[in-house]
Amino acid sequence: MTERLYFEDFAVGQIFRAGPRHVTAEEIKRFAAEFDPQPFHLDEMAAGATVFGGLAASGWHTAAMTMRMLVDGALPIAGGIIGSAIDELRWLRPVRPGDILTVEAEIIEVRESSRPTQGRIRTRSTTRAADGEAVQSFIANLLVPRRPPA
Question: pTM here?
């Protein structure tokens, strides 16, 4: 298990990475059937006649896969990843069956909090396909616990 990090461990410019995550047509359809049941997420034939030109993962599915990679290792924050806001969420290109995703989270701000037990960090997370092309990006505002007194 990765060491868990506290507020004091973060500095602007640090980069954390995770992945890969292999995307399948089955999981795209399964997620869509439950959460975003639109034809371009559910059926290859119907999707071919849309702006996507083929089966595409829901943007919310891409966000969920990104979150899983962040939790699995990209952001090993003590106490978990606790967000207070997401800014500038962008879906930059469709995620397709067969894509292999990775995520990179860069620390872009570290600041004190009015609460003595926590601080705040802002991260810019970019999810990429295997060819390096960005498929999603966002800025997360996170609450991070301070290291407990020894």
Answer: 0.94
Element (H, E) at 137: strand 134-145
Per mean pLDDT, which range of 9-18, 66-75, 119-128, 132-141 is the poorest?
A: 66-75
User: Residues near 118 by Cβ (< 8 Å), separated by ≥ 6?
Assistant: 7, 143, 144, 145, 146
Interacting residues of 7 by C-beta distance below 8 A, sequence separation 6+: 110, 118, 119, 121, 144, 145, 146, 147
Query: What is the b/e burial string over 22-37, where b = at least 16 CB atoms within 10 angstroms of the residue's CB?
Result: ebeeeebbebbeeebe
Q: What is the pLDDT of residues 77-115, one digit of tens each?
A: 999 999 999 999 999 999 999 999 999 999 999 999 999
Q: CA 18 → CA 3, 33, 66, 84, 145, distances in Å?
A: 14, 27, 9, 22, 22
Distance CA 10, CA 32 (A): 36
Half-sphere exposure of residue 62, counting CA atoms within 13 Å on the CB side? 29
